């Protein structure tokens, strides 16, 4: 009989067992990916940690990432990826019409923004759209609160409807008790380099697990000290995934995430005179009226329109790529049919 207790600190619950055990082959056990490398990954299994071999990139099982649950055979080969509950997905950095999964099966995402400089509200909105779309619950964390001259909590709360916002200092220990009370299940940290993610992760883990470094004093930009996404059990229960700093966060199929991030604007838009109002200069625009009255900042409307256009552009690129792939398949079929007809004709 398989003992699943070693998997419990890594997120194994009765609900997970009920979902995944019926999907396993008789000779396989469930395992969770702790860290990915090229062609191999570190996993936690019912018998403890192991090194597993991943399928080839061109196999049906591809795109594995930290946080995935997989089916593992007796030779420590990953046989299948088990269904994801959530997935944090961005467009690839190259701008190609492809999505990159940053972390899987995440319940809570801590969007880290350093408070020791100007807080970038537009970046926070972008990250919120990414997280809402994933199915996880976002929490905006203003880090390095002990060095901030002013904490713009009200401004951040205004751009994060439905999400909790708080300020913490991992080095001073302030705000951590409130943050820990908000953590649920698997927690992922997202944010730019220099946001203090690894320092915060170490504080939550109560151990110096991840390397940290200082930021440049000139522009407050950090150095990449975390180079892998790695999953660790939290001493308070649940698991934590630290991620490398994100320079760019391209949206990928994030219409629902944008809608939730800008729910205040979409609620106003329902009262616009025209259903296809662009909230620019149309008569009877409820959003423009809210801007003019000071209810909604102009910056937020620009951000809403920008992210919406970017997402629509990416969706169009993705549709074209899929159509091109379909066309290529049909060209191959037609070519094969022509070859068969020629061969039949030559035999007559």
UniProtKB/TrEMBL annotation:
EC number annotated for this UniProt entry: 3.6.1.-
Biological process (GO), any one: ribosomal small subunit biogenesis
Positions contributing to Zn(2+) binding: 272, 277, 279, 285
Keyword Metal-binding: yes
SUPFAM superfamilies: P-loop containing nucleoside triphosphate hydrolases (SSF52540)
Enzyme class: hydrolase
Subcellular location: Cytoplasm
Cofactor note as given: Binds 1 zinc ion per subunit.
One Pfam family it belongs to: RsgA_GTPase
Stretches assigned to the EngC GTPase domain: 104-247
Gene3D superfamilies, per database record: P-loop containing nucleotide triphosphate hydrolases, Probable gtpase engc, domain 3
Record GO cellular component, one term: cytoplasm
Function: One of several proteins that assist in the late maturation steps of the functional core of the 30S ribosomal subunit. Helps release RbfA from mature subunits. May play a role in the assembly of ribosomal proteins into the subunit. Circularly permuted GTPase that catalyzes slow GTP hydrolysis, GTPase activity is stimulated by the 30S ribosomal subunit.
Protein name as it appears in the record: Small ribosomal subunit biogenesis GTPase RsgA
Native source species: Nocardia jinanensis
């Amino acid at each position: 009989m398989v003992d699943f207790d070693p998997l419990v600190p890594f997120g194994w619950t009765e609900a997970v067992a009920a979902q995944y055990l019926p999907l396993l082959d008789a000779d396989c056990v469930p395992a969770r990916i702790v860290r990915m490398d090229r062609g191999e990954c570190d996993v936690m299994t019912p018998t403890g940690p192991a090194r597993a071999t991943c399928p080839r990139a061109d196999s049906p099982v591809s795109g594995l990432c930290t946080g995935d649950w997989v089916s593992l055979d007796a030779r420590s080969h990953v046989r299948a990826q088990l269904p994801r509950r959530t997935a944090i997905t961005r467009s690839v950095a190259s701008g190609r019409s492809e999505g990159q999964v940053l972390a899987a099966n995440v319940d809570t995402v801590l969007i880290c923004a350093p408070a020791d400089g100007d807080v970038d509200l537009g970046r926070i909105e972008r990250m919120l759209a990414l997280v809402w779309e994933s199915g996880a619950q976002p929490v905006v964390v203003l880090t390095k609160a002990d060095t901030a001259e002013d904490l713009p909590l009200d401004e951040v709360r205004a751009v994060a409807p439905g999400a909790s916002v708080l300020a913490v200092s991992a080095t001073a220990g302030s705000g951590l008790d409130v943050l820990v009370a908000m953590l649920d299940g698997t927690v992922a940290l997202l944010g730019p380099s220099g946001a203090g993610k690894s320092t915060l992760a170490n504080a939550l883990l109560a151990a110096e697990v991840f390397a940290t470094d200082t930021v440049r004093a000139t522009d407050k930009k950090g150095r990449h000290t975390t180079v892998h996404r790695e999953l660790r059990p939290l001493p308070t229960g649940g698991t934590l995934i630290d991620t490398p700093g994100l320079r760019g966060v391209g949206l990928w199929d994030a219409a629902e995430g944008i809608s939730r991030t800008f729910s205040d604007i979409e609620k106003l838009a329902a009262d616009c005179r025209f259903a296809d109002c662009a909230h620019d200069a149309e008569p009877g625009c409820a959003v423009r009226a809210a801007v003019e009255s000071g209810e909604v900042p102009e910056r937020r409307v620009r951000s809403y329109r920008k992210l919406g256009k970017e997402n629509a552009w990416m969706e169009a690129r993705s549709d074209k790529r899929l159509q091109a792939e379909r066309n290529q398949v049909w060209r191959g079929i037609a070519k094969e049919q022509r070859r068969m007809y020629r061969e039949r004709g030559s035999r007559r």
